[in-house]
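Q: What structure does this chain adopt?
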Amino acid sequence: MKFIDQSAEQFVPRIGIDIGGSSVKAAVQIGNEIHTSVSSCYEHPNHAVLASRIREAVGSCWNKIFTESDKAIHDDSEVCISVPGPVDDNGVLLAAANLSGIINTHIPSWSADVLGLRKQPVVITDTLAAAYYEYHCNPFQGRSLYLSIGTGVGGIILDSGCPLIFTRGTCGHLGHIDVSGDVETAPYRAGSGRGSLEAYIGYRALLAAGVPADETRWANHPAARPALQALVRALRTMLVIFRPGEIVLMGGVGITLEPALTFLEEQVRRDLSPAAPVSWMLRCSKSDHFAAALGACQTVNLQNEQIS
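A:
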């Protein structure tokens, strides 16, 4: 993992693209100048819709930087794309609950065609991209658990900046952990199963439960209590399994949980297993909704280097 040296190769365009469950976010950097943009929303898009949203998001950034005569996207741009699901060693998207229309797509070649690039982009998971960016902004010496809560829920572990990987390029599908305690009545989300953390606290799950997730202090709403309790159960489990020194809540939903941090930490610490670390802290990311796009943008696409 390397980040851009802004004093070197300053005129090579860097493009970070975060393909999310409901929109595409992009970050474009030329030298010290960087711009971000988000596409129009979608739901379970096919290839054509997603291609148009990628061009929309990247094009909006591009138009902020270049003059009319330079509006065409450079075909030698260095591009990194983050996706909300695991990819195999060749870059094929294996699973994505909110992007079922593009599963089994070879993302590097497809996205190169979409943007007219000469070389194929690097592809990593959205949670890893966001975690890299957060670590770059706030490095932590030791083990950190980054839990990204947005349309879906995912997690990554960094050991002093290095990812802990068990399977399919991840440390495990943390948003799929069953936190229900009662399978009969637990909510269900396609792609993560009944009773999963994502089925309780993913953005669409919150809306379906009657939680005003677009409000700043949505965690105070009575309908949010099951989601918060599910998150507490998940964090207690993750503390025992991974033993992180810090837990960072990221994503569009995760970063809005700051008003509830004291409540969450008190509930997590209450009679917590002695197998959990004695010292740990819980915080929300200071990054905004563009963390994954910015993390992808700052990932240098080196010749013959594969980032998984």
